[in-house]
């Protein structure tokens, strides 16, 4: 007589009902082209990443778009927070997302990070 399938089914049920990793899920995409040290894009990017945290956390639930103000190299960015977050927690989440994109996409001309409750993206060209 074959072994009952019950233990396997129970195991699958336990796995699928475990707390969803999506709550803290993160995905990272980096452009495979890079800027060089001394490229003015670095300064524009630093401006945009900072602005994404400071201004982007003001209205959780709404996407925020940023453009660097320096004319010699533009950086474009977008940040978003879940509408469930308050501004303090949105700011904290965006700071983490910026930290991740800086660490995982060093000197990439574009990068995206999605954490569970917020995300950031930057590019050298406008995007929506
Ligand atoms: C914000 O963070 C605080 C402290 O970490 C936490 O107690 C609170 O539940 C969070 N609020 C939201 C809306 O996530
Ligand atoms: C990398 O950046 C360039 C210039 O902005 C863009 O054309 C290209 O689509 C990007 N590649 C990816 C994979 O995002």
TrEMBL record:
Domain of life: Eukaryota
Transmembrane segments: none
Subcellular location: Cell junction, Plasmodesma; Cell membrane
GO biological process assignments: defense response to bacterium; defense response to fungus; killing of cells of another organism
CDD domains: Gnk2-like (cd23509)
UniProt membrane topology term: Single-pass type I membrane protein
One MF annotation (Gene Ontology) recorded for this entry: D-mannose binding
Similarity-based family: Belongs to the cysteine-rich repeat secretory protein family. Plasmodesmata-located proteins (PDLD) subfamily.
The protein's name: Gnk2-homologous domain-containing protein
Source organism of the structure: Dendrobium nobile (Orchid)
């Amino acid at each position: 007589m074959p072994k009952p399938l019950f233990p396997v089914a129970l195991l699958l049920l336990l796995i699928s009902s475990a707390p969803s990793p999506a709550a803290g899920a993160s995905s990272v995409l980096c452009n495979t082209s890079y800027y060089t040290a001394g490229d003015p894009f670095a300064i524009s990017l630093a401006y945009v990443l900072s602005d994404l945290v400071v201004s982007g956390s003001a209205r959780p639930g709404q996407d925020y778009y940023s453009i660097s103000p320096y004319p010699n190299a533009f950086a474009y960015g977008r940040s978003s927070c879940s509408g469930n977050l308050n501004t303090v927690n949105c700011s904290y989440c965006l700071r983490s997302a910026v930290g991740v994109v800086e660490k995982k996409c060093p000197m990439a001309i574009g990068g995206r990070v999605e954490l569970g409750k917020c995300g950031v993206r930057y590019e050298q060209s406008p995007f929506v």
